[in-house]
Amino acid sequence: MDKKQILSRTDIPALYRELIPKFKETKPGQQAIGLCPFHDDTHPSLSLNLKSGVFNCFACGAKGNAIDLCIKVWGTDFKTTLHRLAERAGIKTTGSEKTANKSRAVAVFHYTDAEGKRLYRKVRYEPGRNGRKKEFFFFHGDKEKGRGCEPVPYRLHEIIKADKIFILEGEAKADILASWGLVATCLDSGSNSKWHPRYDQCFEGKEIVIVPDNDLPGEGYLNTIATGLRGKVKSLKVLRLPGLKEKEDIIDWVKRGGHA
Ligand SMILES: [Zn+2]
Fold it and tell me: What ipTM does the predicted assembly reach?
C-alpha cells in the first residue's frame, strides 16, 4: 500500500470533521481548528491544514500528519490505520494484508422491551473486517439482519422501573454493574450512539450517573447523553473512576480490583 497515494486520495476536511471535536473551518477548505486529542483540551488549540493534513497544537506542541492523527484517535497501529484510510478512499488493498484469522461471534447481548421481551441482539465478532479488533452486528428474529425496530437503551425492562441508573459505554460494562446489583444501561452503538428523544421517558426525574471511558470517544459519548438528559432528570453526575490511564475503562479498573 502506498502511503502517499492513500493520503492524496483522502478527503482531509471530511476526515478531520469526523475525528476532531469542535472542528471549525477558519479558512474554508484550507485551515481549521478543533480540540486536540493529544492533551485534555477544552478550548480548540489544534490547528489543521486541510490541504496537506498537517496539524499542530499550540498548547501541547503535538504535530504530525493525517496518519498520526488517525492513529491517535482510532487507537490503531500504523498498518491498520493505512488500511482504514485506504478503505475510506476507495482503494483496494491486497488480500495478503488482510487478517488471516476467521471472524467469529464471541459475545451476544440481548436488547429487550419494557416487559423484558427480546427485541434484537447485538453480536460481537472478533476479529472484525479490515484489521479491526472487533466488530458488532445486530440481528432480530431467527437470523434476520438489523434491529427490526427502533433502538432502545440496554436492559430497558430494568431501567424503566429504577430510580437510579448508571449509564456506561458498552453492554459488557453495564453487565458488570448489574452483577453488583446496580441498574445499568448503555446505548446500542457505543461511542457513536445518538440520543433519541424517545429515550427521555426512561430517565426522566431519575438519578443518573454516567461512567465514561477515559478517551476521546468516551468524552463524546458522555456529551451526547448529558446533552440529551440535561434539565430532564433529578440529578446528573459523571463518575470518573480513579487511576484510569488514557483509553482505559471500567473493565481495566475492575481487573485491578475495583468494585462498587
Ligand atoms: Zn494538544
Answer: 0.99
